[in-house]
Design brief:
The complex is a heterodimer of chains A (about 300) and B (about 200). In chain A, about 50% of the residues lie in helices and about 10% in strands. By secondary structure, chain A is an alpha/beta fold. In chain A, helix 2 (about 50-55) packs across helix 3, helix 3 packs across helix 5 (about 100-105) and helix 11 (about 205-220) crosses helix 13 (about 240-250). Classes of the chains: A alpha/beta (about 300), B mainly alpha (about 200).
Amino acid sequence: MTTQMTIPYYPGCSGKGTSKEYDLSTLGICEALGVDLVEIPDWNCCGSTPAHTVNHVLSCALSARNLALVSKMGFNEVTTPCPSCLTNLKVAEHKMHKESFRAETNALLDIPYEDDVEAKSVLQILYENVGTEAVAARVKKPLEGLRVACYYGCIMNRPPEVMDFDDPEHPMAMDHLMEALGAEVIPYPLKVECCGASYGITRRDIVSKLSGKLLEVAESLGVDAVVTACPLCQMNLDMRQSQINTDNGTNYNIPVFYFTQLMAKAFDLSYRIQGLNKLIVSPKTALARIGKVVEKPVEKVTEEAAEK
Amino acid sequence: MLLSNKKEVVSGMNTYKIASVDAAFTAEVEERSGQIMSQCYQCGNCTAGCPYTFAYDIPVNQIMRLIQLGQRDTVLKCRSLWLCATCQSCTTRCPNNIDVAGVMDHLRHMAREQGYATEKNVKIFVDTFLESVEKYGRVFEMGLMTNYVKKTGRFWTDMDLAPKVLPKGKLPFKPHPIQGRGKIAEIFKRFREGQRK
């Protein structure tokens, strides 16, 4: 039943810091599903958004070094949990199809990047290579009763010509994976809206407004938690939730998981792999709902109607 | 040219004085971005989907129009360039397949080259981030924060989060440089040499 595959792994800088729990849970669930992630030896930072806002050749050179390292490992595919890293790896590959651009980029590198290496998100690997059936089969403790909103962030699927996975306006991969875990997925209309990205540091008002809207809609839908696939989205919604509340005069208390953490939870993997203690907003109340029978208002109406 | 000198373009809340048209600017944006600016017919879809319009001084569709009109200084000095997060909403939704977010990226490059930085702290953040990459090969998050605070003097930045985040043990206090950090520094060095030429 389990998939057996080996794929080079690019954790990204935040995976070794602020999104440690994303990295740990990704490694844990992939192992459980028979996906062997091999970390690229001595990988470097992709430069994230700062690099491409300064210069595209510089940005692509930083990513191309990593792609060249993947080639050296003897692979033509690489996976990363972080959408920002993913974008940079994909854009580098995309832009370097143009000969003049490739030459300019390679001129900055020690070892030129000459091959084609395709980057895919961990979400894509889990959805396409492993599949929801295999995920469902691995579940030991279903998340029944947990109502979640799946939030993909702005660049996981956009622009579609580059990202080439799922629907750019209405992605569903994470929704289906959460359903496979037994969670109740509430349709979330803001699944690809921007959270305010890294402006939390430079222009906190922007994050408070944009992430505030994301939390407002999540709360209005009555979800127990928001599920994310991006370290920056997760950090803005979770770590900055108190700032958002201060700035907007709100009182949200919504836990924000990485989708891999909920998979680890449903697979009943170790607490270390789940990394739930790393979250800033406590997930205790939300997780306590798992296994509880949820009262459905619709049924109540039917009963009342029946009495009449 | 459709517009003679000293005419005004009135669009929404903003009024721009069109003193002269710098056609070379339009051509330069087209050359760098690979996009054909005349394909924009001002439907406004980019601005409709842009989450940052509330913070912009010039909405993105108007930036597109100002490029068509060769308004170099107005465009390169606008704050919007520094506030665009490249969320790709505009590019994804443009009915004429213009890579609008790509154009914004190239405008930022041009603004930088001309020494404009109308959102100074954003530029400082970007520079500090890349300095960290150049030095260690990876971003050292804690160092990035402390250097940003040092350079901007904004010592209160995220101070409120420290007691919540630090006990989680997610932020290493020391950088973990990669073995190939010399190679990364070389990439930056060659890049700067190329820029000077």
